[in-house]
Amino acid sequence: MSVAGPTVVLMTRSVQALAYVRPSALESTGSGRLLGLETAGGLTPRGAEAHPRFFSGFLASPQVAARGLLAVADVAAARYHQRIRPGSLDPVVTGNGDRLRFESFSGCGGVYARLDVLDEGLGGAETGHGTTNVDVNNPLREALSRMAGDDPLHLRVGPEEMAVSTLAGAVVEKKVPLPDRWLRGFAEAQVASARFDLRAELSGAEAVRFLRSLPRTQARGRGPLWVTPSGRTLRPTTRPGAGAVCLPGPDRLVALERVLRHATGLRVYGPVPDGAVATASAWEVTLPGMRLTLTLSPDPARGFSGEGGVLEALATEEAAQDAELVAVLLAWEPRIDLADLAAQAGLSVDRVRAALTRLGTAGRVGYDVADAAYFHRELPYDADRAERHNPRLVSARRLVAEGAVALDGELATVASGDRRYRVRESAGVLSCTCQWWADYRGRRGPCKHALAVRMVRRGATAGDALRAPSGVGPGAGAEGASAAGAAR
């Protein structure tokens, strides 16, 4: 399905065309200011729409909203590793009925940003349901940056009603690259976030002091920076201790500076440290009626795309079938209740979680660390595309197709080229004698040999591996739709 223009596939990169009725703008009116955010093609409960309308109402904290939107746009335009070729990637907005979520991904694929404008930030006004790109152009950025005072600000997400008759006329079109690693990274960031717990919480004043004290760069060759609770604040350290959270590349939090003067607190999320190995983490600044969250990949030099958290879910036909069922039950919920969804689907919670992971590869669900819950969105991407261009998954399917896996109880032998690798299963965890396992020991997902063994143990045959995977995205089978650019 193509909503906002053609998508041309170029190996593992496509060109995405985003069409807007007019540029977004900040205008002065007789009753204050109007922030008109124009939408490109998107998905709603009514189906695909060229220019959906999600919200029209006054914001409770105009300056905060303006600066939060700028922070999300900053991340969308940034490349934190090898700072070349700045991007111009428009954020995505999702209406969930009680909030608006603005999301973006950095050009390097290592930072995911989301601004949640909550019910109180919207003055209690309801939002529509659906997902689309919004135009954030340079003149709008400059106007938002200059915005001062708390004059009333009316936000409109989507075209004016009187503009509907002119939608077939001239449009503003943007063409942006859409590498597959962005799509994979979007799904991997969700999987990583679902494993986070709240590790620290600071007051607004302490949050400002701590964030402004961080080094602007990470010293080369010294390993990742960590932070540990120390009284009312956090203390940077080079070694993880009790309650430590990894801060890989402190300069990647620079977008938070946009909103620091309005911060009411800081919450830090991460997994339980695994020795001194770097991990992903999430940094949430709480604001009046809003939350701004940045999620960082474990290393500034690599994005989320190679973390391997989705591979297990992609490797099983059971998850594919479950995902098709679960997808029908999603209803644009801002918080997905796993137990309730499992009851509706007649599946276990673990199977529903695996299905949601698979749906995440098509951009159909995200994860909110503040709510500790998944949420529904609809990015019209093809999940098959994430599978076809995932190197380890492609290699594992090839090994199965070649009959390279021989099972022997808890052991398995995988023939790969001139070498033979031994894969052992213990308590449901697979280990391998290959170099990938020696380097990462499962921290970046299974190696291709273990993945092939998992597939065969679940009944996959050479014929299964040769068949194209089944899609779970809207318009599955199309090579990537172009309505929303959030996989960035």
Automatic annotation (TrEMBL):
The name this protein goes by in its record: SWIM-type domain-containing protein
Organism: Streptomyces venezuelae (strain ATCC 10712 / CBS 650.69 / DSM 40230 / JCM 4526 / NBRC 13096 / PD 04745)
Keywords: Metal-binding, Zinc, Zinc-finger
Residue spans of biased composition, Low complexity class: 479-488
GO MF terms, alphabetically ordered: zinc ion binding
Any single Pfam family the record assigns to this protein: SWIM
Ranges for region Disordered: 464-488
Span of domain SWIM-type: 421-458
Source organism phylogeny: Bacteria, Bacillati, Actinomycetota, Actinomycetes, Kitasatosporales
Domain of life per record: Bacteria
